[in-house]
Structure formats: C-alpha cells, structure tokens
Specification:
By secondary structure, this protein is α+β, with helices and mostly antiparallel strands. The chain contains 5 helices and 5 strands, in the order ααααβββββα. The radius of gyration is 19 Å and the shape is globular. The protein has 2 domains: 4-76, Orthogonal Bundle (Arc Repressor Mutant, subunit A); 90-158, Ferric-uptake regulator, C-terminal dimerisarion domain (Dna Ligase, domain 1), CATH 3.30.1490.
Length: 158
C-alpha cells in the first residue's frame, strides 16, 4: 500500500514533467517503485491488470519509457527482453545464463571512472556479471565457486 507521502511525491514528479498523474501511471509507479525483481513490461502489465483490468500492454510500455526518461527506473536492455529496474541508482547485477535471474549487488565505494575516460561524464554506472546462479549450479551438481578463473582472466562461476 502506498503512503500519502509517496503519492504526493509522485504527483510532484508528474508536475515537473508536465504530465497528468493518471490512475494508470500511479498504478504502474506503485508496482515498480522499489521493485527489485527486474520485471519485464509483460510482468508489470500482468500485475497492474489485477488493479486496472482495462490497462493495455502498450500503455504500460509507454509509461515505463516515460519513467525511464524521468530517471525513476533504469531500462535494462540486451538481456533477453527489456527489463526495468525499480532501483535507478548505481548498482550491479548478477545475471544467470540458465534461469535468467537478475540479482542486485552494491558497487564498491568510492567508485572511480577509468583514467582513460578523459572528459566522459557518466550519468549511470552499472556492472553486469553473467554466469550461473547458486540455485542453478546446485541443480546441475556444480557448486558455484567464485574463486575459479576463466581462460580470459575473468572470475567465472562454472
């Protein structure tokens, strides 16, 4: 359940972006705000439809693209399907190649930009680590061992 403070904050966000605070936008915001499941548009749509049965997938996609442009969520492309991260701040993702699970992790602090990125002004920093999650490794009988190195010198979990 959303608090009055959260609803008021969302109304302010809509005002700043010159958009109406519609029932549809608010329902999508309620679902995605702080959501750590990295849902796809289809997953968001399926959940919001429980509250608003007439909402279309296209409306949810358009709203999520607005939220992405406003910096409320981060659109994660090049996984399987585009997923949206309810935590827009800088953090990393562990992505399982077998089951598709996406697990958040905190980036080390302080975070520095490589010295050869002279003049580059980042607006989002994300680290994606792909491999096999512990649950999938256990199912296949391969214990995840993050100390193993791949032939390329990268840490590997298989």
């Amino acid at each position: 359940m959303m608090t009055k403070k959260t609803i008021d904050r969302f109304r302010q966000i809509c005002n700043v972006h010159h958009c109406r605070c519609t029932v549809q936008r608010l329902a999508v915001y309620r679902y995605i705000c702080g959501n750590t499941a990295h849902p796809s548009v289809d997953e968001i749509w399926a959940n919001v439809k429980k509250e608003i049965p007439t909402i279309t997938r296209e409306s949810v996609f358009r709203i999520m693209m607005e939220f992405s442009e406003w910096g409320l969520v981060y659109r994660m492309d090049k996984i399987t399907n585009a997923c949206f991260d309810g935590i827009a701040g800088n953090h990393g993702h562990l992505i399982c190649r077998k089951c598709g699970a996406i697990i958040d992790f905190n980036l080390p602090k302080p975070l520095t930009i490589p010295s050869d990125a002279v003049g580059f002004c980042p607006d989002h920093i994300e680290l994606r680590v792909s491999g096999i999650c512990a649950a999938c490794a256990e199912k296949t009988g391969h214990a995840a061992d993050s100390s193993k190195k791949s032939p390329h010198g990268n840490t590997s979990t298989n």
